[in-house]
Amino acid sequence: MKPGHSSSAASRFALAAVVALLAGCASTSLTSSWQSPDYRGGPLKNIAVFVMAQDDAVRRFAEDQVVRKMPAETRATASHTLFDKPERDKEKVRAALIKAGYDGVLVSRLVAVDKSQTYIPPHTHFVQTGPYALVNPYYGNFGGYYGQGYAVVQTTPGYTVENTTVVVETVLYKLPEDKPIWTGTTQTIDPRSRPEMIEAISQLVEAEMQKRGLIGGGAK
Q1: For the residues of 146-198, what is the DSSP string, one character each?
Q2: What is the pLDDT of the chain when averaged over all its residues?
């Protein structure tokens, strides 16, 4: 194997490792989940879904995703189908929902977007290019160890990775009492796209509420 070929292979390997690292970073998890110890009402049957987002397109998409994932036993309605535009008068919204027969409201909002940087230091390794490359382990005999003196040294330069953490809080209220019966917080690290993040959050939140017997057919 020629030194030039070794260098090229090592560079490709280093690049692939970086790409794999960055591609595998995105993840969403439920970091907290609280349920009111006083609630004994069983699964809610008719829920209005509100996503408090400034971007109207994001709000509509997110609400539709939550509605789509709701179990069949619980009817869910996106707020953008109930009000022409976001209604800021909370008492007006509450009165309208109670009058329409909703027994619950699910509200999600963005809590924080934190950015940080991680420095990945340089990494140095060697690639054996001579006839001793096949000796394994290389220190098992004099010839193998001696041959390492002629290895090609490769150094992957250091680089900085920017990390983004998105925190979303979701609260489930019981109507007409207007009392919170569940709240959960999700954390998404390095989201690849908004739709993918919303999909993951919706799935986690609704699975947790169903597990707790607050939606669907009851606790699993």
Answers
A1: HHGGGPEEEEEPPEEEEEEEEEEEEEEEETTTTEEEEEEEEEEES-S-HHHHH
A2: 83
Q: What is the pLDDT of residues 149-159, one digit of tens each?
A: 666 677 888 88
Q: How confident is the model at residue 218 (pLDDT cuts 50, 70, 90)?
A: low
Q: Which amino acid is at 214?
A: L
What is the CA 31 to chain-centroid distance, rounded? 11
Residue carrying structure tokens 């090609």: 152
State residue 37 phi and psi, 5-degree precision. -70, -10
- Write out the two tokens for 38: 């006083």
Q: What CA–CA distance (Å, rounded) separates 153 from 135? A: 18
Residue 199 CB-half CA count within 13 A: 8
Residue 22 pLDDT class (50, 70, 90 cuts):
very low
| Pairwise CA distance, residues 108 & 50, whole Å | 6
**What are the chain's domains?**
35-118+165-211 (3.40.50.10070), 122-156 (no CATH)
Candidates 48, 73, 74, 75; CA nearest to 63 is: 48
Query: What is the helix, strand, coil percentage profile of the chain, to 5?
Result: 35, 35, 30
Contact 77, 63 (CB under 8 A): no
Distance between CA atoms of residues 115 and 53, nearest Å: 20
